[in-house]
Design the sequence.
C-alpha cells in the first residue's frame, strides 16, 4: 500500500506502507534493576556526601553536588548555568 503526502515545499511524495497498525508496542523490561543495578541514594547518605563535599572539595563542586541532589538536575544542565541566567532570573 502507498500513501501520497506533500512535503513542506508542496511536492507530492509517495510512501510505501507495510501496515496500518499504529499501536505502540508494550515491551516489557526487566523491572528488577534500575539503570544497570544502581540504587537511589538515601537521604542520610546524600547529606553525608554533601557535607563531605563542603569540607573536602572546592566550593563550586560542593554547590554543584548539592544542587544536583536537591533538584534532580543533570550534570550537563548544572554545568550550563551562567551568571547571566541568574541575573535575568532564569534559574530560580
Sequence:
Amino acid at each position: 500500500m502507498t500513501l501520497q503526502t506533500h512535503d513542506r515545499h508542496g511536492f507530492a511524495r509517495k510512501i510505501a506502507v507495510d501496515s496500518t497498525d499504529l499501536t505502540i508496542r508494550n515491551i516489557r523490561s526487566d523491572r528488577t534493576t534500575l539503570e544497570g543495578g544502581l540504587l537511589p541514594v538515601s537521604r542520610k547518605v546524600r547529606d553525608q556526601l554533601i557535607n563531605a563535599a563542603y569540607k573536602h572539595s572546592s566550593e563550586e563542586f560542593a554547590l554543584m553536588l548539592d544542587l544536583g541532589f536537591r533538584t534532580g538536575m543533570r550534570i550537563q544542565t548544572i554545568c550550563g548555568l551562567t551568571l547571566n541566567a541568574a541575573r535575568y532570573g532564569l534559574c530560580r
